Amino acid sequence: MKQRKIQSSVVRKSPAADGTVIENKSKLWSSPLVPVIVVIFCLLPFVNKAFHIDDPLFVWTAQQIQKHPFDFYGFPVNWYTTEMPMFEVTKNPPLASYYIAGVASFVGFNEAGLHISFILPAVAAAAGTFHLARRFCSNPALAALITILTPVFLVSGTTLMCDMILLAFWVWSLFFWMRGIETGKKMDLLFSAILVSLTILTKYFGIAIIALLGTYAIFHKPRRFGWILYLLIPLATMVLYQWLTLSLYGKDLLDSALTYVTEIENKSGLTFFHRCLVALAFTGGCFLPILFYSPFLWSARILRVGVVAAVSFIVILYFSPAIGETSLRDKAGIRWDLIIALSLMAVAGVSLLGLTWEEFRKNKNDDTLLLLCWVGGTFFFAGFVNWSINARSLLPMVPAVGILIARSMEKKTAGKRLSAFRYLVPLLPSAFIAIAVTWADYTLADTARTAANVIHRDYAAARQKIWFEGHWGFQFYMQAYGYKIVDIRMQDITVGSIIIIPKNNTNLIPPKKNLVSLIRTLQLTSCRWLTTVQPELDAGFYSHLLGPVPFLFSNVPPEVYFLLEVKSPPRK
What we know:
Layout: E1 12-15, E2 21-24, H1 33-43, H2 55-67, E3 76-78, E4 83-85, H3 86-89, H4 95-107, H5 111-117, H6 119-133, H7 140-148, H8 151-156, H9 163-183, H10 186-202, H11 208-220, H12 228-249, H13 253-264, H14 272-286, H15 289-292, H16 294-297, H17 300-318, E5 322-323, E6 326-327, E7 329-330, E8 333-334, H18 336-362, H19 366-385, H20 391-394, H21 398-412, H22 420-424, H23 427-459, E9 466-468, H24 472-480, E10 484-485, E11 498-502, E12 516-524, E13 530-531, E14 533-534, E15 539-540, E16 552-553, E17 559-566
């Protein structure tokens, strides 16, 4: 199918739904500086964010790389209650850690310096979305802004995990591939293949883009297959990486990651219906602009159907006692905050998938097929294949969401005079929520660093008899101070030792009550009205095993750390 090339001048032209051409002479849509500036403006306030969730795994690997650059996973770590080799713990390739190691050689392993360096891949992802969107619509800046001002983009932009780097490589590899297939320029195809290789070395999900690129090439030029040679480059890279890790560690790390998926996937006990509901809720919550743009994208009849669907979800959940292991009732009664959030987010998720299908149904071509495979494939992987439903797994499709909304907006409003301000109005509530969710995650991360600082201030003299449980950022800061993490295989804990246990953390094994006594409770306040990770409220941005929604507006309890004194040592 022949690709219709969008002009690169200030006047943008794009096909409307009825086949006419609409023009947009606003300079706002013609400058990539707009999304770049917005990304920097949104992320700079959070550069002092404490290491959070899986950040320590990437930082520790970077520290190992600085010492032994060709043995990136050759060190032990206690992440699952006992010490294990790092290559058995991590489920990602090491490229992001090599990036951290390179940056840290100049700025050190401090939070601000590393977070500032991670603004660069966020900027690259935003700029790549802008340039890619020019191929699909006449408002590329709008598509990029919708991409940026989502909870999943901004929160991911404040972590040191591999997801934002993956997104940057992903978007630019698509851009050069599409241009190379259209123009036949071999250098574009080669550069795309190199970027795909880097994508795979950043995160294993990057393998999926090979299928996406192949699908686009087949439908764009069905009788030419020279492009296959270029896709052999990332495939060869993947094989070489597997050979290298097998040689270094005697283990196929990709197979290890797949095995982990099969071991964890049924842990939450979700039925198929509930899993679909949670996958839709994460999708709608992560890509919230779809909810606020709905009045522009759908007819009044479809909007009424959406309202009925939201009410139906609320009624169904009202009569459901639980979703998997998540109870929809507590001591106060019905969990209306969770039920309403689940319902609205699920409807937003349905709206996004519906918009993707509607765009393909009305305009069957290689562009819309690409968007359909991009959104549908990522949703299927994140919701039904990955070890847990989480926001990070949905991040790769956020540029497609921005493009779909911007593309649909210009078609639905064809023939109408809408100012740039009218286009941006629905972004205002989305921007507020996205920044608020990012702030909530920032304050939550800071409580772990503060807890470690307070404990060290008050108990530094007794350091040798202090142990702790918990992982994530709390483990990083406690170990940085020299405190010892509890290992279930160790028997070194003696009478009089102090064990510190965070309430909101992972892989905890609290000691029996008759063996310890509570000597202190440390409480620290994060955001009081919004949270991303709080099992007590069932919010689980980083995994649905912590909660069925990515974030929740509610009365958020403080972060609690229990300090327990050992009265009797654990028996073997």
